[in-house]
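Dear support,

We are seeing what looks like truncated structure output for some complexes. This example has three components. We would appreciate it if you could run it in full and send us the complete token output so we can diff it against ours.
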Amino acid sequence: MLLLTCPCCGVTAEETEFAPGGEAHLKRFGPGSSDADYESYMFNRKNPRGVHFERWRHAYGCGKWFLAARCTMTLEVFGTYRAQTVEPPAEIVAAIKAKRPDWEGFA
Amino acid sequence: MSELAQSALPGARYEGFVTVTEAGLRGMITLRGDLSAMAGAVKDATGCAVPALRRVEASDGKAVAWMSPDELLILCDYADAPGLAASLARALEGQFATVANVSDARAVFTLTGAQTGDALAKLCPVDFGTLRTGDIRRTRAAQVAAAIWVSGEGEMTLVCFRSVAQYMFDLLSRAAAPGSEPRLYA
Amino acid sequence: MSHRLATGGRLIDRARDVKFTFNGKHMKGHAGDTLAASLLANGQTLLGRSFKYHRPRGIVASGAEEPNALVGLGKGDRYEPNQRVTTTEVFDGLSAETQNHWPSLDFDLLAVNSLVPQFLTAGFYYKTFLRPRAFWKHVYEPIIRKSAGLGKAPAHDARDPDRYEQLYAFCDVLVIGGGIAGLQAALSAAEAGARVALWEQTAHWGGRAPVDGVTIDGQDADTWIAATVARLEGMDNVHLRLRCMGAGLHDHGYVLGYERVSDHAPNIDAPRHRLWRMRAGQIVTATGAIERPLSFAGNDLPGVMLASAVRDYVVNYAVAPGQSVVVVTNNDDAYRTAIALRRAGIGVPAVVDARAEANGPLVAEARAAGITVLTGKGIRKVKGGRRVTGVEICRIDSKGTAFTEVFDCDAVAMSGGWSPVVHLWSHCGGKLLWDDAHHFFRPDANRPPLGVDGTGFVTVCGAANGDLGAVLHGAHDAGVVAAKATGATGNAPTPATDNAPDMVPMDAVWMMPRNAEYDLRMKMWLDYQNDVKVSDVQLAAREGYQSVEHTKRYTTLGMATDQGKLSNINGLAILSDALGQPIPATGTTTFRPPYTPISIGAIAGEATGSTFQPLRRSPLQDWHEQNGADPEPVGHWRRPYTFLRAGEDRHKAVNREVTNARTNIGLLDASTLGKILVSGPDAGRFMDMLYTNMMSNLKPGKCRYGLMCNENGFLMDDGVVARLSEDAFLVHTTSGGADHVHGWMEDWLQCEWWDWKVHTVNLTEQYAQIAVVGPKARQLLERLGGMNVSADALKFMEWTDGKLGGFDARVFRISFSGELSFEIAVPASQGRAFWNKLLAEGADLGVMPYGTEALHILRAEKGFIMIGDETDGTVIPQDLNLNWAISKKKDDFLGKRGMEREAMIHPDRWKLVGLETLDGSVLPHGALAVTGGKNANKQAETEGRVTSTYYSATLKRGIAMALVRFGPDRMGEVLEFAGPNDARIKARIVDPVLYDKEGAKQNV
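Here is the complete output from our reference environment:
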């Protein structure tokens, strides 16, 4: 069971205090978008072996959503950060690069 | 009609290795917005400063609890809550802020005794050894949300939703049953 | 006769007798005994029958690894099968029963299986019961079920009366295992400044060291143990627990501990078990090692025991497992047993050592004590029926065709070497390496389990790490390293030094004799509990099983409740040998938690009885319960389905409530409805995104019904929105949907439109909400007084607030029943008083509460949809003819793009219609409309399904709603619906609005 640190209230807590929300940094495609874009938004999800970005909500705590960079292989958490961003911030990217030099970067 | 008002479990009390008491009606006001921008209004209404992260400021029967980066919970007398909420709303007019009286949506329990942490450790995934007086920790108690405020020496105040008051009281009573002291913290 | 020795027994209190029963027979033991020790002291060596062959079995071990001696403990509600006698502390009144025999322990008819052991070889079930197919259900399975199974389940109506609980705990360093290594690791970690917890699964600190004669700084181990425990107990940063087993080691330092709080003293007022949910920064496993059996013919007879167990019984409990014990070994350690036996005055006819030479210090000590040592020899077979009567010896390198010596004895102490307990290390991904010198797997320190920061969080010390000699300095290092890893900076003083004799390495002997013939191999047990023999594993290898995981499942090796604690390595070795490859190439099976079985009660913890799950109570719940409410689960709420009166069944009660609401006044507790405040300058814009219809143009003081869809376009929730002010809306959701919708709003506001100025507050529980429904509703409200609720002052779909009957009330004039209706919200704390007032004031007007079923019928008569009935997560608003509620002016709303997909605009989609049965009956729930044809899969072709179906007390017949292919275009057509027993029920498609279509009743 994971340990996660909520960047909004600073609490480090076990997974049962949080609710998972799937892949992070999805771009919403609304009316007028192509079928392919809508499909990618709604249905296609990454399933990497390694570095992954995901959404979590501190459901039993401060109620805020946040994002986590995590290794799906080792479960190492590289960092958590606020949800109000369209891509991982530089310090998170740097933390991942330091641990996973071969990581191809956020795409 | 507040003389007809009834808390969720009037008079409920359990005496185990911790004493659990339903605290009766409490005034509670949710305040959402930019916390620093609301500081003046909060001070005027409660006499309290805006609390730091996961802290509670208390003064003269009122308290202000940090709930999230954009949310405070003001505690006061039940009868005062509608008036206090209205005056806060007036004070914050023109600001992006929301004031809501939530006094009736909650149940409040007071836990007293030296071993409050030991009882709550059976229900909450929280290291009670790290909490100090004036801290508030929002977490899970078994299967429901709870906010736990270390409201004094040997005293914790637990706030949960009103509808699960009975569940919470049963949980706390069971956790405080004599003979089951885990002796983890005290 | 008593097998209790006259002196000794470091763990027992001879002054205190304990009385218990075994298969109804009264026996006596001493305080401090395990049940195993007491039974052996009473001369009870036969303790059960094996799983497949029903062979007589006795105690093999002295701890958690025991495979044979499982009993049913307790009686009635407290009966529990499959409890190990070796880990059960005896207490006054204990009752134990043997299991897996028929008709009795001493005379078991199913032991005939044993006469033809080739009958149940590996894969027997797979091979034998394959055909004929029909036999499985009626012949094979009933027979197998009768003969198989380990122990009896408690009676079906038994209810465990004991208390169980869980405990969340935290520490820097958790040390698991309270032998001398664990004690030292804990002490050093604590001295370095870490917050330490130390768990020991047995009732005693110190582990094996005192039994093995280890000395520490020149003193006996017990002295050091007592002093160290006292020091640890005196430290504020240390928490010690006996009887607490490290059950499972999980991600990010999460460890489950199984504390048997009062198993040993069931009369104290305490929980029985406590499940620790420990979160540790670092973990030190000091879990020791388990001795391995040797594989020789007849090694399962009662009286054949692990050498370490034999000396445990002698030294710890002063119990003689036999009067004459042959020791058989491939290593030096077993000589400790020979010496201990001799010291206790028990006969040791010989030590049979498989090694060509034996000359370590322990061997020399044994020889000096006059014990006969035979080298290069092994046991050919054990003689005896229900217990050992002697052994035949042969040369270790022979086929075992003939014996070289014979000894009479009543017990055999065997040692095949030791296996470190690597379970916890392995649970979370720690890797093992094969130690060629000692022939065991041990933790590979370079490949530990990885924690939250990607570094290792487990360290191993003592025998668990493969250190079979001195351990204290290694344990000290482990404790200090773990403490430092959690940020501790203190210094731990140099530890004491333990003195362990040098030991000559063991010889790998996986079968005795090495070239044993088949008739010997088929009597060599690997897995005692599941009756798996050397010959079975060899057969599996011959039949092509190469993967150890497959062989395990095919032969059931290691799959019993002991999870192969004794058998795994021996089985691996046999398999590797049969496959002609080294043991590390075969690998091990996966170690999974828990280490030994834990009780279901501990797993359930507090989640039983009234705290099984949180039942949400409305502010009016007490009244409901006092007035005949028949509860219906709606999420975690229990809403009244109907209020039963004396002599009524549900149907009659519901009809009464429906009729009354249509003729007088019905009261509905609507408090469970979601109520969410949406406020801020951008609230209108946000509401337009949430709802399919336009909400931003709703005027303050007005209400509007709205639909919420998910991004697929599927209906998610519905309800009435009230605009409170220019900046604020009150959103009503379904009872079950409130939390989800609130979370949904926050998700969009926090993660997508974070620059929009909108707040939400979930006010669901702030209000008690009561619907006052029926032609006399206004009359009742006017009686309460204080508020103008006239048709002109408060029009349909408007709201107002003020004082009503003295209560702070917000009144919404909305209707989900088609009647004149007001929904009144008062503060939850005043809900009960307000409800009472409505009942009192309306008594002569015929006021009568109604439940959710009447609510459903009233809305169905009006053709209103219900989320969860007409919708199932695949239904879009257009399917329900709700196009009117989908704005065409808005560029965007959640679900708009989804509704544009090809499948959503397809004309073939099933659409909502009303139904009336031709015979007036009520259609079954979910009934399918069948065309009479067949679909592509040759199943009955369907063209619709019933979504809601009721008896309408108003219309006096069955009514229904259904989704039907081209439904709205087929008005008047008669469809056939499939009922039970191939019945076909005819129903006509009609307008879903069956009652007061023009709305005259609600607009008054």
